[in-house]
Amino acid sequence: MKAFANQNARSVEEAVTLAQQSLQGGQSVSFVGGGTDLLQLMKDRVVNRPGSELPDVLVNLKTVGGLNQVTPSAQGGAIIGGMITLDALSQDALVRDRFSVLAEAAESVASPQIRKAGTLAGNVCQRPWCWYFRNGFQCYKAGGSVCYSVRGENQLHAIFGGGPSYIVHPSDVAPALVALDTSFRVVGPEGERTLSAADFFVLPRQDAEHENVLADDEVLASVELPAPGSGMRSAFHKEMDREAWTHALASAAVVLDMDGGVVRSARIVLGGVAPIPWRVPEAEALLAGNRVTPEVARAVGAAAVAGARAMSKNAYKIPLARSVVERTVLTLATSA
Amino acid sequence: MDGKTEKGRGLTRRDFLEGTGAALVVAGAAPKFAGAESSEEAANLQAAGTAPRTRIRLTVNGTEHRIEVEDRWTLNEVLRDQLELTGSKIGCNRGECGACTVLVDGEPTYSCSTLAVWMDGRAIETVEGLEQDDELTPLQQAFIDHDAAQCGFCTPGQLMAATALLERNASPNTQEVREALVGNLCRCSNYNAIVEAVLATARTGGAP
Amino acid sequence: MTAQEAQGSIGPLNTVGHNVPRIDAYERVTGKATYTRDVRVPGMLYARVLRSPHPHARIRSIDVSRAESLAGVRAVVTHETHQYIYSSGSIAGGRQYSDAAKDITEHIRYMFDNPVRYVGQPVAAVAAVDRHVAEEALALIDIDWEELPFVIDLEEALEAGAPKIWPEGNLGLDFRNEARPMTRSVGDIAAGFRAADRVFEDRYTTAFVQDAQMEPRSALAEWHGDKVTIHTPTQGISNCRHDNARDLGLEDHQVQIVCKYMGGGFGDKNGSYYFDLIAAALAKEADAPVLLELTRKDDWLGTHGRWHTVQDFKVGVQQDGTVTAIQQTGYSGMGPYLRRSGGISGIEAYACPNSERVIYPVHTNRMVSGNFRAPSDPQGYFSIQSMMDDIAYEIGMDPVDFAKKNMLRPTEDVRFTNYMLEDCIDRGVELFDWQSRRRVEPGSDAGRIKRGAGFSFMMFRSGVGPSSAIVRVDSQEQYTLFVGVTDIGPGAKTTMALIAAEELGVPLSEVEVVWGDTDRCPYSVGESGSRTTTQTGYAVVQAAKDLKAQIAESGMPRRGEVLIASATPTPSTQGARRMCFGAHFVEVEANVQSGHVRITKYVAVHESGRILNPLPARDQIRGAALQGVGQALHEDLLYDPRNGHPLNAGYYGARHLTHLDAPEIEVEFIETDDGFGPYGAKTVGEAGIILGPAAVANAIYNAIGVRMKDLPITRQRILEALS
């Protein structure tokens, strides 16, 4: 790897300051959580931040105290530090009990070793796994002006929201967070700001280079989950092309607010199919006020993919996404 | 500067693998050091003023080491090259295979995917630390008895992941064994025998 | 499962046939086994290789001055500094062990070629004080490239007007340096089709699969005067030594190859590699030992894998299911260098009296293809046995009955040392409960979860041939066995020791094995082609017999003396075919809504003569079968044909099987002794991989009712086929 200096931050503010100092000194900086993905990009000499260089400085967030906790919020929800490992997140009693979609999503990521190192923030801010990007092609995601998947090998690319880049968002945790109506607390040199999911993630047509709004000197410090309603239940299911340790071909994060057997409201967010976690309001609307029967579930699945547009080689994602929505909604709604 | 630098001119596609292109290297490249007699000396000469280094304290298999490492060195490199514990392997160096698995404070970790400097103050256990006083652990013996090592290259990683599993769950079922070891590939595909060895260890009630 | 005794006619001997843990299992479970990168030499430098980013390009100029100036860099080599031929990298007609072929082949491959012909081909290398400096130095090598037209697709490569990779075009040159396909004709194909009631035609394709052994390759080279010692993971230390000596312009005795432990080989490492040469060149330049480490991506793209194929079949069948004609046209993707033959096996397992096979080994600008465990077989068996399975269902026959009707059996002209194929099939039918699991009507299960079963059968070469062994006894009655094996995983060291102990009539503990070092071991054919047990093992038996005779004549050696016996037998079966046999039965559960396939039962029945060591033999089959599953369902190397770049190299990209993907494989051996080999032992190492793709594919057809004709059978493809 290119030589770099590791700087251990003791607070988020210090992390931001360290990053700023390096940037102002003309150096390239990356924040690092678990580092399992960043190190591979660095070994492959793939630049993590578009328009940047391979990092001269890594600002280590693992040393920031208290950034890895799950804390009940005053409103009855939860505040989760960005540096919590995926393993700790999936095992946390409060998360498992009240936000199972998030626990299940975290548990589905990669392998046990990666889950013990990888962090919530790292997973959410992960760069795309598009094979053009990861093989060093100078595409939009690397700061270039082309997407090679358009007329190329797009088996793993987007059926929603694509253009000019057609990557799919690689995070499993992100769809769960979006389904839970999570807010994202970002800390930067100007202080902190809180964003909704809709404002945190960006479509390529807004900004083709980035998947989210974080600047080079900003940190995703924590997320806040609103209080779950008394009738809330949630689940995550992910379809992969091997049994484990693989990014989603299509996934569904489903949150239902139920009253007896009737769905009051629903949030359904797809992963593996779009450059951002993809909510499907048309499908959600079909559930409101209804009991979930196999027919209803089937209709919900169909509605979820009604707006999908296949590229030349990824049409299979449409029935697959439909299937995962149908199956997850039905199982969740009808389980005891 | 705002952190954005001008990309190299004419770079339409990054050179492949370890190729050219991207960032520039170690600042202030100096001429070759003629007369450097050993690679270690040369490394010290090389290191001075170039690759950032940090002093860390690592406890490995119960022994504390105080060493100076380059910030860019992975835990795996330090174990294998500085401490000469070559039992932990490199299979891919990308966190995709698990051959480098060691235990960090008891947790299975890809040693290729974590920096040594991040391990400061931690307790590391490698495959070399399993055998105590010339006695193999029941798990190691089970690996021998159940033919769980074909070429043997994934074996240290499988052993460490399985050791951690049996520490927290003394009687896993088949599914639990597979889930705990899913982060360890075996291309000889000796999966059946590895699982049998772990289950056999559990059945005999042996601590790992 | 343990070995099965057939008709009570064969059982374990004193040592052979009993479960014996591998003699080096201790080293493997303690981390003490020294693989190539575990070897430490004082003053060792580290090296990295710069590789081509282009599928086809000429180097106009290369400037290494900036790299050489980087502090810590000790040597840089390029095609301009070294013009070593890499002789085992390009062998006409697949004669990898033939010096004669290497002498006449016209498509010479060099350590560093210019022009380069595939993404990943080596271009230059750097040795430095540590690997990071070496890597940084690569980024300082400046190359002025002239990009050339390239071709990725197999059939496109043979079209007129395709970019020419070689002056003669893109059809591989055979051992006469002629561009002609490999052909095999039996009987009269036209008459065969005239005799048929129905003729079926179809096309099957199989993807490239990398050997992907867990140990990424390396070479550690050290010169002592005019002799070089190279530690390198090789299955054939003798061949490796000879190839390297030849390419370095040295005599054999000036090259020492050492490989004590190897992290998997699967048939691809029996011989030298270009990185042996690169390490030797760097070590000479730097006047220091050099460890060249390939990254996983280097290894994936810069070595070899199983050739991908396109196969067209035309099969003539009579009403009663008798196959009267088989015509096969195959295209094998070999990359730009014909390292191996590109053959496609499978049709010869049928008795059909009229057949014609034409195989084109094709050059493209993809990575090079080479041997991987039964090199020509799984891709061929998948295709022909899917075809035949299809035909069986079309004419309303049980595929097992169809197979029995058409499989090759002993005749007056076709003699076998013994023949056990039907036994394997019958035993498998019984163990697997074929009649219950197979759906008479494919795809007939109701609902979205459908089950089905498929089967495949095979015979595979288990020939006899020359190899060498030396056995020695000292005054302490300690026996030492010298064999040139490496042990890529099947446990060869242990097997050889078992054989020696059996023949000598002594406990295994009294036999020490010296292996993996050309300075100490005799010639070995190398561990590929499933020959170690049958050929080297047989040599061990002969050497042991000779030693026993010496002991009988002159007694045990006195203090300070040893008795030595060596043997290089050249046994012959007098024209009888010596084959091992097998049948695999697979049940799958397919979700037609999600395309997900799960193997719910897998039975593998094999006859491999006498099983010398039951557990390793069982695990050879289980592991190979799982590799077959990986080939069937997941593995591929995808190239973007517009830029000639491989997109998914690596374990993750190719979706290799994890613990959770691996079903339990049930293995049963039917043991026999045909009087050949050591104690009747036959091939085990390659046997298990041949049938997986065929059996899995046939099971999927039986479950979903749609024939999948392209490997890998991914979820994506199933969903597309069903929609």
Topology of this structure?
The complex is a heterotrimer of chains A (336), B (208) and C (723).
Chain A (H helix, E strand, L loop, with lengths): L4 E4 L3 H13 L4 E4 L3 H8 L13 E4 L9 E3 L5 E4 L4 H6 L1 H6 L1 H8 L4 H6 L2 H5 L6 H4 L38 H7 L3 E6 L2 E6 H4 L18 E7 L6 E8 L10 E10 L2 E10 L6 E2 L1 H7 L6 H11 L12 H18 L2
Parallel strand pairs in A: 1-3, 2-3
Antiparallel strand pairs in A: 4-5, 5-8, 6-7, 6-8, 9-10, 10-11, 11-12
Helix pairs in contact in A: 5-9, 11-12, 12-13
Chain B lengths: L38 H9 L5 E8 L2 E8 L4 H8 L18 E4 L2 E4 L12 E3 L12 H8 L9 H14 L5 H8 L9 H13 L5
Parallel strand pairs in B: 1-5
Antiparallel strand pairs in B: 1-2, 3-4, 3-5
Helix pairs in contact in B: 3-6
Chain C lengths: L24 H6 L14 E7 L5 E7 L1 H5 L3 E6 L20 H6 L17 E7 L2 H8 L3 E6 L6 H5 L23 E5 L2 H6 L3 E9 L2 E2 L7 E7 L2 E5 L5 H12 L6 E4 L15 H13 L3 E4 L2 H7 L2 E2 L1 E10 L5 E11 L21 E8 L15 H17 L4 H8 L14 H12 L1 H4 L11 E13 L7 E6 L4 E4 L9 H13 L6 E4 L17 H23 L7 E6 L11 E13 L5 E11 L6 H20 L5 E2 L4 E2 L19 E4 L22 H13 L10 H8 L1
Parallel strand pairs in C: 1-12, 10-11, 15-16, 19-20, 23-26
Antiparallel strand pairs in C: 1-4, 2-5, 3-4, 6-16, 7-14, 8-13, 9-10, 9-12, 14-15, 17-22, 18-19, 18-21, 22-23, 24-25
How does this model look, in words?
The complex is a heterotrimer of chains A (336), B (208) and C (723). The termini of chain A are far apart. Chain A contains 13 helices and 12 strands. With 336 residues, chain A is of the alpha+beta class. With 208 residues, chain B is an alpha+beta fold. Chain B folds into 2 domains: 10-129, Beta-grasp domain (Ubiquitin-like (UB roll), Roll), CATH 3.10.20; 138-203, [2Fe-2S]-binding domain (DNA polymerase, domain 1), CATH 1.10.150.120. Chain B contains 6 helices and 5 strands. Chain B has helices at 39-47, 75-82, 138-145, 155-168, 174-181, 191-203, and strands at residues 53-60, 63-70, 101-104, 107-110, 123-125. In chain B, strand 3 and strand 4 (107-110) form a beta hairpin. In chain B, helix 3 crosses helix 6 (191-203). The radius of gyration of chain B is 21 Å and the shape is globular. Chain B starts with 38 loop residues before the first helix and ends in a 5-residue tail after the last helix. Residues 1-49 of chain B have low confidence and may be disordered. Chain C is of the alpha+beta class. Among the domains of chain C are: 3-34 and 464-567, Aldehyde oxidase/xanthine dehydrogenase, molybdopterin binding domain (Aldehyde Oxidoreductase, domain 4, 2-Layer Sandwich), CATH 3.30.365.10; 36-148 and 218-232 and 273-293, Aldehyde oxidase/xanthine dehydrogenase, a/b hammerhead (Aldehyde Oxidoreductase, domain 3, Alpha-Beta Complex), CATH 3.90.1170. In chain C, 26% of the residues lie in helices and 23% in strands. Chain C has a 7-stranded mixed sheet, with helices on both faces. A 5-stranded mixed sheet of chain C has the order 6-16-15-14-7. In chain C, strands 17-22-23-26 form a 4-stranded mixed sheet, sandwiched between helices. Mean pLDDT of chain C is 93; it is low at 1-8. Chains in contact: A-B, A-C, B-C. At the B-C interface, helix 1, helix 3, helix 4, helix 5 and helix 6 of B face helix 1, strand 1, helix 2, helix 4 and helix 9 of C.
